[in-house]
Amino acid sequence: MSGLVMPEADAATMARRAEIVADMRIIVPGEGVVETVNEMRAFETDGLTAYRQLPLVVVLPETTAQVARILKYCNERNVRVVPRGSGTSLSGGALPLEDAVLLVMSRFNRVLDIDYANRAVIAQPGVTNLAITHAVEQDGFYYAPDPSSQIACSIGGNVAENAGGVHCLKYGLTANNVLGVEMVLMSGEVVRLGGSHLDAEGYDLLGLMTGSEGLLGVVTEITVRILKKPEAARAMLVGFSSSEAAGQCVADIIGAGIVPGGMEMMDGPAIRAAEDFVQAGYPLDVEALLIVELDGPGPEIDHLIGEVEAIAAKNGAVTSRISTSEEERLSFWAGRKAAFPAVGRISPDYYCMDGTIPRKALPTVLAGMRQLSQKYGLGVANVFHAGDGNLHPLILYDANNPGELEKAEEFGADILRLCVKVGGVLTGEHGVGVEKRDLMGEMFSDTDLDQQMRVKCAFDPQHLLNPGKVFPQLRRCAELGRMHIHRGQIPFPDIPRF
Ligand SMILES: Cc1cc2nc3c(=O)[nH]c(=O)nc-3n(C[C@H](O)[C@H](O)[C@H](O)COP(=O)(O)OP(=O)(O)OC[C@H]3O[C@@H](n4cnc5c(N)ncnc54)[C@H](O)[C@@H]3O)c2cc1C
């Protein structure tokens, strides 16, 4: 794997591979264990395809009891485990390790309960995000968080990554729409956090679990909130001659107290690539395009469209179109939703970044990105969840040119450093994984990281669950103890050290 340092494989585990595979077959009989190199190839990477690694063995359990037995077995024998949903992570969260069991949750694929009285759905973690909406849409309901990958990504992966999407500006991220989970700890214990009720007592462990990137436990059941579909929705396409003007328009819309159902922005290269790909009707002579969707009762939408038009005009909008039919609204979104594959047509490879900034810093960051693009000699196309300040720069490169992937990675790291410098964060929705792991020090002090590691150690003291992800290399429960011994006094003596 190019340049990526992962935890060294444990020789004792590697030597016991045949025994571990045989034991996995006992726990998960039938076709639930995949062990040949050819069959395991399908699992060697996730959405961050720059990195690949065959796992020790792939195990696909079907029940919580099987997951509990696998984790207990691995915990007792010091075997690492990497959880995986659909494998669409863009930060390498599900990247296998040579000496780890890859625990694939895709056979947990049933919607277990639809509870309209509590507006909740209980689903197994391998159910796709979109399948939850499909299960309730005939009754006028839907599940709001809508990652672009929703046709494929699992709801378990969404919880682990705190996934977001176009509609999260108004309706919240996964964290705001998950009511409860059943999860298995590395020890094999099964715990329940939250449920169909609105609030839970005690510490917000559900909040802690959401976005924990497979480091704290394996989610085996999820209760999500569903919403009634809005009465109507209309989308606007507003074009600008500069990204800065479009960015200011976004800030002014939010500043006026308007919360659109979705507010997305694309820059010139992304607009032209998307239009060429799906013919969404985007103007080609603008440098930035906003898609603003307003939803709710018809008269409210009409009123808000008027307000947004006025704000856009004040910011120098050069084109404006409002959808007049559901078909047209969907066509406005089709270009945005196809933006990633569309960019794939104009460059042999692209590297999708994910950072979040305060909205008002957008002009500064865009200008900085242009300078970096010149410095590295690589193009960049931009697609943003503009309302949330969540950027997705797509760095264009050619992996066949020696050194270009490394250049793209360094360019991406500089963009994220810039995001942190202007008061933003390293990730908006794609997670830290292996991709941003070594940049965590840009954002957190050693003390911050130690505190986060103490949480990890409380759940998984031997550091067996998804190691090598999120924490900069070489931080482990044991090192935590070693680093902070003051005058012979061991802090937190109750935390186990190995
Ligand atoms: C084309 C494309 C578009 C995308 N668009 C978006 C977007 O708009 N918004 C967005 O947020 N993301 C987006 N993503 C990223 C990705 O789809 C999300 O992060 C998604 O939540 C990952 O789900 P998954 O099932 O594929 O998880 P995986 O990739 O399999 O795993 C992701 C992480 O979750 C952990 N994990 C998975 N299942 C479990 C479980 N049951 N218990 C504990 N841990 C688990 C894994 O260990 C890993 O760390 C996109 C990806 C692609 C390829």
From TrEMBL:
Segments crossing the lipid bilayer: none
Keywords recorded for this protein, A-Z: FAD, Flavoprotein, Oxidoreductase
Protein name (database record): FAD-binding protein
Molecular function GO labels: FAD binding; oxidoreductase activity
Co-factor requirement: FAD
Domain FAD-binding PCMH-type, first and last residues per copy: 51-229
The keyword rRNA-binding is assigned to this record: no
Keyword ATP-binding: no
